[in-house]
Design a protein that fits this description.
heterodimer; A: 319 residues; mainly alpha; ABC transporter involved in vitamin B12 uptake, BtuC; two-stranded antiparallel ribbon; 74% helix; B: Rossmann fold; binds adenosine-5'-triphosphate; binds magnesium ion
C-alpha cells in the first residue's frame, strides 16, 4: 500500500468512527474518545524515538505540556483557530525536541532517559514561574459552545484529534518503510556498526527527537480547550509519561500498529476504569499490565500475533 | 612523495594511562595489499578504530585520499571510501542478512556526491552478488541469529565491501574459518584488490597473511617495529623476538 492509499484508508476508518460516535448521540463518547485518540498520537510519537531508534524518552509529558502551553500563550496573546495552534505547538515542541537532542543524544541508554526526565522537571519549573501563562495557579481557557458546521465543541476537538491520529500514524508508517526507518533501526541495533556503514547517526537521532517531540506537542495543543482550565500539574502529569511508554511497549514497538493497538486498548481500559471504579486506579492498571507484558511478551501484542500472521508478508524495500 | 591513499602520521591513542598507540606512521599507496600483524593487544584494532573514526586519536593525523580526516566522524569517513569489518562481528540483529547489506548501499553508496542512486532492483542485485562473493548465497532472508560465528564473519566482511570502498580494512575476518575457507577469503580479497581496492588485512593466520600481503607491517605494544617486504620482515630479529616473547 502506498502512503496516500494508507492515508485514505485511515481517513475512511476515522470518518466511520466519527459518524458512529455522532450516531450514538452522546457527548460522553466524544469526551472519552478524545482522550483515547490523544494517547494514540502520544504513543505513536513516543515510538518514533523509543521504538524505532531505541531511545527511551521519560519526558513525554514535557513535550505534551509545551504544546498545551503554546495554546494557552496564544489564547492570551493572539487568539487563533485550533489547527493553527496545533501547527505552532508542533513547531515549538519540535524545536524543544531538537534542542534536547543536541544536549542529550551523546548520552546512551539510561543516561539519555534520565536527561529527558530532567528536561520535564526543568520545563515544569519554568512554567510554574511564568505568570503570563498562569504560573502555578493555572489558566482558564474559555471555549465557545458551538462550532459552525460541526456542532458541539467537543465534537470539533474530537475531530481534530482524530485527524492528528491519522496524520501521526501515516508519518510513522511512512518512516518505517523508508530509508530513514532503516537508518533508525540500525541506531537501535548498533550505533557503531551503523556509523561504520555510513549512517549519520546523530543527524538521524535529531530528526527522530524533533519529529517525536513535534507530534507530542501537537497532541497537547487542543488540550487546554478540552479541559478548560490548565495547570502545570495536569499538563506535566505522570499519566502522559507513563502511558506514552506503556502503550507502545504493550502493543509492540517495531511497527506503527503496536502503539495504535496499545493506545486503543489501554486508553479504552482506563476510560472504563475511570467510569466504573475511579481514575485513581488507572496508573496502577497500566503499571501492572506493563510489568506483565515486559515479563511475558517483551515484543508486545504485535510480537505475539506476528508469527501466525506477519510471516508471509514480505517486508517492503526502501527506495 | 607520490600520492598516497592513506597517510598516518604520528598517531597516538591512550586509554587512561595505558598507551595503546604510540606515534604510529604508516603510508599506503593506492592498490596495495598490506598485512598488519602483531601480538594480541598490540593495538591493531585500536589503529583501525582511529583510522575509521570509531575512536578519536589524541595525537597525530590521518590523511585519506588527499584529505585530512581530523574532525570527520565515522560515517563521513565511510562515505569517503574507507570501510572496515569489526573483529567481533556487529551485525544489525533485527534485520535480515540482505537488509544488513542494504544499509551501506543506502547510506554510503547512495549518499556519495555525484554517485548514481541505486534502484531497488539494483540494490537487491548488489546484495545477492555480495552474498555470493563471501559464500552466503541464499541466506538473504535469514537473520544474523541464524548464522554461525563463521558466517557472521563473512557477513561482516560483505557489509564492509558493500559500501564500495577505496580502502578495505579486514580486522581478523578469518578467525575460525576452515583451511579452504581461509583460502577462499584470501582469493576474494585478492580479487577485490585486482578491481582496484586497497586492502589492509589484519590476521593471526600467518599462511593467509603471507600469501596475501605485498607488504607487511608489524605492530608491537602500540609501536610500529617493522614495515617492508613480507619475507624480509618475517626474518627481522625484532619481529621474531616480539613473537617468541609472547
Ligand atoms: N576501549 C578500550 N578501553 C580501554 N582499553 C582498551 C580499549 N580498547 C582496547 N584497549 C586496550 O588496548 C590494547 C590494544 O587493543 P587492541 O584491541 O587494539 O589490540 P589488537 O592488536 O587488536 O589485539 P588482538 O590481536 O587481540 O585483536 C589492549 O591492551 C586493550 O586491552
Ligand atoms: Mg584486534
Amino acid at each position: 500500500m502506498r502512503w496516500w492509499t494508507f492515508l485514505l484508508a485511515c481517513s475512511a476508518v476515522a470518518a466511520a468512527v466519527f459518524f458512529a460516535a455522532c450516531w450514538l448521540a452522546n457527548d460522553y463518547y466524544f469526551f472519552a474518545g478524545y482522550t483515547v485518540l490523544q494517547f494514540v498520537v502520544l504513543a505513536t510519537a513516543w515510538n518514533i524515538l523509543g521504538g524505532y531508534c531505541g531511545y527511551v524518552n521519560f519526558g513525554s509529558a514535557a513535550f505534551f505540556a509545551v504544546g498545551a502551553y503554546t495554546t494557552v500563550f496564544f489564547h492570551k496573546a493572539l487568539p487563533l483557530p485550533i489547527p493553527a495552534l496545533v501547527l505552532l505547538a508542533g513547531i515549538a515542541s519540535g524545536l524543544i525536541g531538537l534542542g534536547t537532542g543536541y544536549l542529550t543524544l551523546r548520552l546512551r541508554g539510561a543516561f539519555f532517559s534520565i536527561a529527558t526526565l530532567a528536561l520535564a522537571v526543568v520545563l515544569q519549573t519554568l512554567v510554574v514561574n511564568w505568570n503570563y501563562v498562569g504560573g502555578s495557579r493555572g489558566a482558564y481557557v474559555v471555549r465557545p459552545n458551538e462550532v459552525a458546521l460541526i456542532g458541539s465543541y467537543v465534537q470539533y476537538l474530537f475531530l481534530i484529534m482524530l485527524a492528528l491520529a491519522v496524520g501521526a500514524l501515516a508519518v510513522a508508517r511512512a518512516i518505517e518503510r523508508s530509508r530513514l526507518g532503516f537508518g533508525f533501526a540500525t541506531i537501535r541495533d548498533d550505533e557503531l556498526a551503523a556509523e561504520a556503514s555510513g549512517v549519520p547517526t546523530l543527524k538521524l537521532k535529531l530528526i527522530a527527537t524533533t519529529l517525536s517531540g513535534a507530534l507530542m506537542g501537537m497532541a497537547g495543543a487542543p488540550f487546554p480547550y478540552y479541559i478548560g482550565y490548565l495547570e502545570p500539574a495536569s499538563a506535566f502529569g505522570l499519566p502522559y509519561a507513563v502511558n506514552a511508554i506503556a502503550m507502545p511497549m504493550i502493543g509492540g514497538t517495531t511497527s506503527w500498529v503496536g502503539p495504535l493497538i496499545g493506545a486503543l486498548l489501554l486508553g479504552t481500559l482506563q476510560q472504563v476504569a475511570t467510569v466504573t471504579i475511579s481514575s485513581a486506579v488507572n496508573l496502577l492498571l497500566v503499571g501492572l499490565l506493563l510489568v506483565g507484558f515486559v515479563i511475558v511478551a517483551p515484543k508486545g501484542i504485535v510480537g505475539l500475533v506476528q508469527p501466525y500472521w506477519g510471516r508471509k508478508r514480505k517486508r517492503a524495500e526502501p527506495p | 612523495m607520490t600520492a598516497q591513499l592513506l597517510e598516518v602520521d604520528g598517531l597516538g591513542k591512550r586509554f587512561g594511562g595505558f598507551v595503546a598507540l604510540d606515534g604510529v606512521d604508516l603510508s599506503i599507496a593506492p592498490g596495495e595489499r598490506v598485512g598488519l600483524i602483531g601480538p594480541n593487544g598490540s593495538g591493531k584494532s585500536t589503529l583501525v578504530n582511529c583510522l575509521c573514526g570509531t575512536l578519536a586519536n589524541e595525537t597525530g593525523s590521518v590523511r585519506f585520499d588527499g584529505r585530512d580526516l581530523s574532525g570527520l566522524v565515522a560515517h563521513q569517513r565511510t562515505r569517503l571510501g574507507m570501510a572496515r569489518s569489526f573483529q567481533l562481528p556487529r551485525p544489525f540483529p533485527s534485520m535480515t542478512v540482505g537488509d544488513n547489506l542494504r544499509i551501506p548501499l543506502l547510506y554510503a553508496v547512495n549518499a556519495r556526491p555525484g554517485a548514481a542512486h541505486l534502484s531497488v532492483a539494483e540494490t537487491r542485485e548488489r546484495c545477492a552478488e555480495l552474498l555470493g562473493l563471501v559464500g552466503l548465497a541464499g541466506r538473504v532472508h535469514d537473520y544474523p541469529r541464524d548464522l554461525t560465528q563463521v558466517d557472521m564473519r563473512k557477513l561482516e566482511l560483505a557489509r564492509a565491501m558493500a559500501s564500495d570502498p577505496k580502502l578495505l580494512i579486514a580486522d581478523e575476518a578469518m578467525a575460525g574459518l576452515s583451511h579452504s575457507e581461509v583460502s577462499d577469503i584470501v582469493a576474494l580479497l585478492v580479487r577485490l584488490n585486482e578491481r582496484g581496492i586497497t586492502v589492509i588485512l589484519i590476521e593471526h593466520i600467518m599462511r593467509a597473511v603471507m600469501s596475501f600481503s605485498q607488504r607487511l607491517v608489524v605492530l608491537v605494544s602500540g609501536k610500529k617495529i617493522a614495515d617492508g617486504r613480507p619475507d624480509e620482515v618475517i626474518r627481522d630479529a625484532e619481529v621474531e623476538r616480539a613473537y617468541l616473547g609472547q
